[in-house]
Amino acid sequence: xxxxxxxLPLLLVLLGGxxxxxxxxxxxxxxxxxxxxxADDRPLPGPAGADHWAEVARYDSVRAVVRRYYAAGALQxxxxxxxxxxxxxxxxxxxxxxxGQLRTKEEYVGGQRQGELLAYxxxxxxxxxxxxxxxxxxPGACYDPEGRPVPYFPFEQPPLYPxxxxxxxxxxxxxxxxxxAEMRQFAGYGFAGLPADGAAADRWPVGEIDVAFTVTERGxxxxxxxxxxxxxxxxxxxxxxxxGITKRFRPGVRDGQLVRTSCRVPVVFYVAVPGRRIRRGxxx
Length: 284
Description:
Layout: H1 8-22, E1 31-37, E2 43-44, E3 52-58, E4 64-70, E5 75-83, E6 88-89, E7 91-96, E8 102-109, E9 112-120, E10 126-133, E11 136-143, E12 149-150, E13 156-157, H2 165-173, H3 180-184, E14 203-215, E15 221-229, H4 235-243, E16 252-254, E17 257-259, E18 261-272
Antiparallel strand pairs: 1-2, 1-3, 3-4, 4-5, 5-6, 5-7, 7-8, 8-9, 9-10, 10-11, 11-12, 13-16, 14-15, 14-18, 16-17
């Protein structure tokens, strides 16, 4: 049975590329963009060989609806966005099995789950009922295919790096070693905002590179890309560090199934207050 894989980060990259290609030409709204994907969510040039495809209907520069379809054309997912560039879901997000049966129904308000979440088996039997308040999961109930109660388990569990997020940050930043010439490019970049005194006066962040990537169902890192950067001359080194991760994550889980999950790791570069040592790669 196909697993649900969030497409938003890759869609944002594709849409961002389209905006770059258009240069400064004005964008007309509403508009629609269609992208085809293979089984690993890699974009394809057209429908030939596509495992699924997605249609992004944009109402203005931020509001949009993303519809995802199975290869045969059946609707797989409907997600309304209050702010697509920031990934803020607002409204009812709905998914379906390929046979047309409702799979999940979730309510969002301003990017947070709010109210009821329902999940169903392919034959329409209720699988789970959860309630959320301000994004917090309240006690719910789970059922087996016969409708009998079973021990409760969370609807979503994010991927987990061995040792946690702090060790992931360390494992990435320790692989980034900018040259002296690259560090000199920071000169004059951040000093205007240096604090006069205080606990943080010995260093000041002047460059941040956010790398987004996918954690596969096997716990491997795939398809890293730079989501945001204020030090583009170091982008490739940071990407190489993320590609070099050898430890496997515990994969993300959605409704009891392993799923591909999007993650992001920030790498922050600091300069020292003039006359003090420069700290590199996240202050290490």
